[in-house]
């Protein structure tokens, strides 16, 4: 029975990008309100682990002595011993074989300390996933269990001094030796997390200078050396160095996946990493807000707790709202991938292909999660630091460290700019492939605009206002996508400023749609959800304001004169002003967090 | 050998508690954790079981359905073999009723050692271990900081004022765990997954054939700590010394 019910759900997993076309709540999705007892138990244990093993010594992990003593590796090994690094490893390889949601939950819990988070992620996320997905049987047997158990520390080496975003322009080369036994690697990989303490790494190089290929490289390879430790703005407790290959022979059996198909490994690994990065950002935001609330509830000025000032509560409300949306939008991706994987047979020889397809299906959402959450994090941390006053600027309080650690989230795993460009690009491609009926949706929208956009109910209840504003955001986004593709056609990919603006709208729609969808599911349980409704209303109304302004500016840059007027007219019809008392909404959101002593919309 | 060990949930000391409207209990909507002293007791039971083959460990929780989660996560996930939940209303029962429940359980399960946390960190009563030892007529070692089995005896090091006392007990016996007894382990993820497959019996107090289930102590009132009084500014050192002598009476 349970199986058939699950299979029904599989067929219901919506297409990636469909959030833009379907009304909010069309497809129920996984939310953090639905963790089972096992997952909650794992989360609680991971939380305990973080508090005792990492938070308790986080300044020490960053210190010179801490780095010299490799305290971080000891923590990582301890985590491995408890099974935290075997979450996604299939049972037949000695792992837990858990789903993407459970794995994401662990990333969430470990995200509260940036140093450990990247160490963990590089080791058993991007440093292990390529072997799990693309390794042959012998490679899996040799490497998976030792990495999962912490006997070998792993890393992932794609970037080079001259190639960051343009990863395929890598200059590290591999050439088969005369005996045909080894590939000889030459080149340098840069910004490699875990480099100083790596035992094994996934390294990308071009065979004969053109066939981009992944290799598994052991530490003791001759001609392979590790560069000096980088001095970074943040994540100082993690190790970041270059990997240098100088005629380094790697056995042919260590070629990972197919020769010349390294890009598949590189990009699929990144797809997985992106929504995980979103959750890592969310986790740090949640911790920072909790600490900032504690500070502001204790700090008095003018004989008043500063948490009771409207100017502070306004910042708090925005932070709470963003955390709620971030939770909703990230776990939605993992849940959808899990839904697609549930019906699959693990012994099917095309299982890996299908799994990659399921992950790729949500590439738009994964990029949106990466960008939206990393930028929400920086805004949240900036507010938290601000209300610490001078204390936020010194090392006595953790917020200073959070700010330093957070910044790189907008850079690695594909810069936010690259990810922004990917979003509309992927969307347009799917429309051309007829995987998403954008054309049909635009046609329907034009009809709606012609007869008149429906108006907001006279006495909106519950989520009415939020849903109405979100639908207008979706309409505007579709209209804008149509406006810019009509104007530029195939040349659109050269118009980066326009793509960035469109991407911002799409991400905002995805975030608010996820918040509203989750709130609908919560309300279906019978609770009034005043705070969640306030969050949805606030973010939808203000999101619509921004979307309207941005849409106008974009069409003004695309069209002039008589051609421009009809577009502006349509924007005015769709981008109606939705009235909302945003002061009252923010007060509701903030008061709840202050009363409960923190962000309590989720409880895991 | 068989060890019966407590897994009591307590209100999270970091959470804010609200006193119920009748002023006699706390409101139900609080966050709970496993009593830290029970964590020490569980760790001790697991270490003894690891050192002595064939030892069965059984964790006991007393409370409502939610308590089962703490038995599973706090004890079974760490490696305890099975659990028993005795259903009871924590707002009504006192230390004496809890001791009688343990008495009933010991008569039913016949363990060689009953291992309890020295006290629960919310009620801080520190009575159950002592009472149940009396009811069972078993020897007891409270505030244990080291426990070893040598032959037929249990050797317990106790923390007493000004030092340590080492005593030897015959089994069956009651031991209560202190904080320095050990460093409680983490549950592994595999352990957490296995925990739900382990047996967890649910009993009612009636199943235990207890002599008495009437509490002898009732809570009359609960109140939050009084807020700190405002300080006074003094102008001179002399005035400060004067106030310290006459008002604070500390010098």
Average pLDDT metric of chain A:
95
Low-pLDDT runs of 5+ residues of chain B are none
Q: State the helicity of chain B in percent bands.
A: 25-40%
Q: What's the N-to-C terminus distance of chain A? A: 29 Å
- Summed up, the domain count of chain A is 4
Structural class of chain B: alpha/beta
Report the portion of residues of chain B in β strands: 25-35%
**What's the total count of β strands of chain A?**
10
CATH class of chain B: Alpha Beta
Total helix count of chain B? 6
Oligomer description: heterodimer
Let me know the CATH homologous superfamily of the largest domain in chain A. Butyryl-CoA Dehydrogenase, subunit A, domain 3
Radius of gyration of chain B: 21 Å
Strand line-up across the major sheet of chain B: 9-8-7-10-6-1-4-5-11
Shape of chain B: globular
- Measured as a percent range, the helix fraction of chain A is 55-70%
Give the largest chain-chain interface (CB within 8 Å).
A-B, 17 and 15 residues
CATH topology of the largest domain in chain A: Butyryl-CoA Dehydrogenase, subunit A, domain 3
Major pleated sheet of chain A: 8 strands, mixed
Beta strands of chain B, count: 11
Main attributes of the structure:
heterodimer; A: 604 residues; alpha+beta; Butyryl-Coa Dehydrogenase, subunit A, domain 1; Butyryl-CoA Dehydrogenase, subunit A, domain 3; two-stranded antiparallel sheet; 21 helices; 57% helix; B: 251 residues; alpha/beta; Rossmann fold; nine-stranded mixed sheet
Descriptive report:
The complex is a heterodimer of chains A (604) and B (251). By secondary structure, chain A is of the alpha+beta class. Chain A has 21 helices and ten strands. Chain A has helices at residues 2-12, 37-54, 58-62, 64-68, 71-81, 100-110, 114-124, 129-134, 137-148, 262-298, 310-342, 351-361, 363-387, 399-406, 416-432, 438-451, 464-488, 496-524, 530-558, 561-574, 582-596; strands spanning 154-157, 173-176, 182-193, 200-207, 211-218, 224-226, 240-251, 255-256, 300-301, 304-305. In chain A, strand 9 and strand 10 form a beta hairpin. In chain A, helix 6 crosses helix 10. The two termini of chain A are 29 Å apart. The relative contact order of chain A is 0.11. The model of chain A is unreliable at 1-10 (pLDDT under 50). Chain B is α/β, with parallel strands linked by helices and 251 residues long. Chain B has one domain: Rossmann fold. Chain B is 27% helix and 27% strand. In chain B, strands 9-8-7-10-6-1-4-5-11 form a nine-stranded mixed β-sheet, sandwiched between helices. Chain B has a two-stranded antiparallel ribbon with strand order 2-3. The chains are: A alpha+beta (604), B alpha/beta (251). At the A-B interface, helix 2 of A face helix 2 and helix 5 of B.
């Amino acid at each position: 029975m349970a199986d058939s019910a699950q299979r029904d759900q599989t067929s219901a997993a919506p297409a990636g990008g469909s959030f833009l076309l379907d009304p909010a709540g069309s497809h129920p999705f996984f939310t953090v309100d639905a963790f089972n007892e096992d997952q909650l138990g794992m989360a609680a244990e991971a939380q305990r682990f973080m508090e005792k093993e990492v938070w308790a010594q986080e300044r020490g992990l960053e210190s010179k002595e801490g780095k010299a003593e490799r305290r971080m590796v000891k923590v990582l090994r301890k985590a491995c011993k408890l099974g935290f690094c075997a979450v996604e490893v299939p049972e037949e390889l000695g792992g837990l074989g858990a789903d993407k949601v459970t794995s994401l939950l662990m990333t969430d819990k470990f995200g509260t300390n940036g140093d450990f988070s990247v160490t963990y992620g590089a080791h058993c996320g991007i440093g292990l996933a390529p072997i799990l997905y693309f390794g042959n049987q012998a490679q899996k047997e040799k490497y998976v269990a030792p990495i999962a158990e912490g006997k070998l520390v792993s890393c992932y080496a794609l970037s080079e001094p001259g190639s960051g975003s343009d990863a395929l322009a890598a200059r590290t080369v591999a050439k088969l030796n005369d005996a045909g036994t080894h590939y000889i690697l030459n080149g340098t990989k840069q910004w490699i997390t875990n480099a100083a303490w790596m035992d094994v790494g996934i390294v990308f190089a071009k065979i004969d200078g053109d066939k981009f290929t992944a290799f598994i490289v052991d530490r003791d390879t001759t001609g392979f050396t590790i560069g000096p430790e980088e001095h970074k703005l943040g994540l100082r407790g993690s190790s970041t160095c270059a990997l240098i290959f100088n005629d380094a022979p790697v056995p042919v059996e260590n070629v990972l996946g197919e020769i010349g198909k390294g890009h598949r490994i590189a990009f699929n690994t990144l797809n997985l990493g992106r929504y995980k990065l979103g959750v890592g950002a969310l986790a740090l935001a949640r911790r920072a807000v909790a600490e900032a609330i504690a500070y502001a509830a204790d700090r008095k000025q003018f004989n008043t707790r500063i948490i009771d000032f409207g100017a502070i509560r306004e910042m708090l409300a925005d932070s709470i709202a963003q955390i709620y949306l971030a939770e909703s939008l990230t776990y939605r991706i993992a849940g959808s991938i899990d839904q697609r994987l549930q019906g699959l047979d693990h012994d099917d020889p095309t299982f890996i292909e299908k799994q990659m397809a399921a992950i790729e299906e949500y590439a738009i959402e994964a990029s949106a999660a990466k960008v939206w959450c990393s930028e929400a994090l920086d805004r949240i941390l900036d507010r938290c630091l601000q209300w610490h006053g001078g204390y936020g600027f010194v090392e006595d309080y953790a917020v200073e460290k959070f700010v330093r650690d957070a910044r790189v989230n907008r850079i690695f795993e594909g810069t936010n700019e690259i990810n922004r460009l990917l979003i509309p690009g992927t969307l347009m491609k799917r429309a051309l492939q007829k995987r998403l009926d954008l054309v049909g949706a635009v046609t329907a929208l034009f009809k709606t605009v012609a007869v008149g956009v429906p108006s907001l109910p006279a006495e909106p209840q519950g989520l009415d206002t939020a849903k109405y504003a979100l639908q207008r955001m979706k309409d505007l986004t579709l209209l804008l996508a149509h406006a810019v593709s009509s104007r530029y056609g195939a040349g659109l990919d050269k118009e980066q400023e326009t793509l960035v603006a469109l991407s911002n709208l799409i991400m905002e729609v995805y975030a608010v749609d996820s918040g509203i969808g989750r709130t609908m599911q919560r309300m279906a349980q019978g609770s009034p959800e005043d705070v969640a409704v306030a969050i949805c209303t606030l973010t939808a109304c203000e999101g619509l304001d921004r979307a309207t302004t941005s849409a106008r500016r974009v069409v003004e840059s695309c069209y002039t004169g008589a051609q421009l007027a009809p577009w502006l007219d349509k924007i005015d019809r769709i981008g109606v002003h939705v009235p909302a008392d945003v002061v009252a909404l923010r007060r509701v959101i903030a008061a709840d967090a202050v009363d409960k002593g923190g962000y309590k919309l989720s409880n895991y | 050998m068989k060890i019966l060990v407590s897994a009591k949930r307590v209100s999270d000391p970091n959470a804010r508690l609200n006193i119920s409207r009748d002023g006699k209990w706390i409101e139900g909507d609080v966050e709970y954790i496993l009593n830290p002293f029970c964590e020490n007791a569980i760790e001790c039971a697991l270490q003894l079981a690891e050192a002595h083959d064939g030892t069965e460990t059984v964790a006991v929780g007393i409370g409502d359905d939610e308590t089962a989660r703490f038995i599973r996560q706090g004890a079974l996930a760490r490696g305890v073999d099975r659990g028993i939940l005795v259903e009871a209303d924590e707002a009504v029962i006192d230390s004496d009723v809890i001791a009688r429940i343990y008495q009933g359980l010991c008569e039913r399960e016949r363990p060689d050692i009953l291992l309890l946390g020295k006290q629960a960190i919310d009620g801080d009563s520190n009575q159950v271990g002592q009472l149940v030892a009396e009811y069972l007529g078993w020897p007891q070692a409270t505030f244990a900081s080291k426990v070893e089995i040598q032959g037929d005896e249990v050797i317990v090091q106790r923390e007493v004022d000004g030092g340590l006392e080492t005593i030897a007990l015959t089994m069956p016996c009651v031991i209560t765990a202190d904080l320095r007894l050990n460093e409680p382990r983490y549950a592994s993820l595999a352990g957490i997954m296995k925990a739900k497959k382990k047996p967890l019996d649910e009993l009612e107090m009636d199943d235990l054939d207890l002599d008495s289930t009437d509490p002898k102590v009732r809570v009359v009132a609960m109140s939050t700590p009084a807020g700190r009084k405002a300080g006074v500014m003094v102008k001179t050192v002399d005035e400060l010394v004067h106030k310290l002598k006459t008002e604070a009476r500390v010098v």
